[in-house]
Structures are given as structure tokens and as C-alpha cells.
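C-alpha cells please, single chain.
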Amino acid sequence: MQSYFCYMNTDTLAINTIISESLEKSMTYPEYRALVINLVEENSSTGNDKSEAMANYTQLNDRRMRRWDKTGKVAEDLKTKFKDFDKKITWLVISESWCGDAAHIMPIIHKAAELNDNIDYKVVLRDENESLMNQFLTNGGKAIPKLIMLDSETNEVLNTFGPRPTVATNMVKAYKEAHGVITAEFKEDLQRWYNKDKGQSTLEDLANLIG
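Here you go.
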């Protein structure tokens, strides 16, 4: 979980404008899922890169999201934390259809947001919202998914989460320190970790985010 964000020498008023403009272009999670399903039918993807590889990733991610939409569960102790939250906030998530981490995380975010009408879950696409993405870089990179938690009334940035839950972030960091680069084999290991974790690490981070 990231509790900081990069302002890139932009003043608060300008950032608020960027956020407001992105919110105007945002979609709900069901709308995002419908978009991905349509892209699969068209053999395409979101983002500037419309290559066959990105279309294939989108198809794979649709299957992943479909599975988590059906099977994702929130533990009872965490349900209470989400249900009892009494401040109106927006979870604005920056993503793209080809992002593997997003496919595992976004349905779980939806499971938590569904528990409380005070949490408004919105999605925007990274390449269509470059100015927004540039304010919330991770180690200088445009890593997604990135969740920006906002005060729904003022659009004040309260916190951020992403691009991975804390446990997965630490796994990636340790592997990079040991091997220098992320390999295809490690990416497969990470996907297996997501499947085994079943979204619980993401839910714990989200609970801490509003805590």
C-alpha cells in the first residue's frame, strides 16, 4: 500500500482540476467489465497499444475477473470495517484491460465497495488520463492499478493503494533485489500467489486504507 503521491510541482488547485476532469470521464466497475467483455469480442484492448499481445492479455484478464466476480469473498471481520465506515469517499482506480495485477485486484475492490454506499468506486483508463497518472507514480513509473482515495465532496486526496497489495509488493521487491529483474517465471509465481491469496491481502490493505 502506498500512502504517498507525486505532485510533480503541480499546485493543489491544478491537481484538483485534473482529478475532477478524470472523474467526469470515469466509469463504474460494471461499466468497465462490460467494456472489457466487448473488447474481447472485438479482439482488442484498452490503451495506446492495440497489439495482438495486449488483446490476448485482455482475454486472459476477462477470464480472471469473471472468476473473481463470482468467487471473491470478504471475511466477516473485514466486512464489519467496510460496512461501518461513515465518510463519503471515492475510490478512483487507474487501470487498463491488459494489466494482469488489475485483473486480480479490481474485482476484489468491487466486493469491498459493494458493502457500503459511502464508497463510490470509479475507474479510468491510464492512457486516456495521462495527467492524472503522472500525479500518482510509483517509484517514477506509471504502475497500475492505482487506487486514489478521495473525499467525495472536496476531491481531496486522502490516501492511495497499489499497484499491488503490500505482500505482493514485498515479494516483487525481494525478487528484484536478489535477481535484478523480474523474470517470466516470477510473474507466473505471482499469478499463483494471487490465486492462493484469493484477494485477502488486497482486502486487508483496503481496510487499513479507510482505517
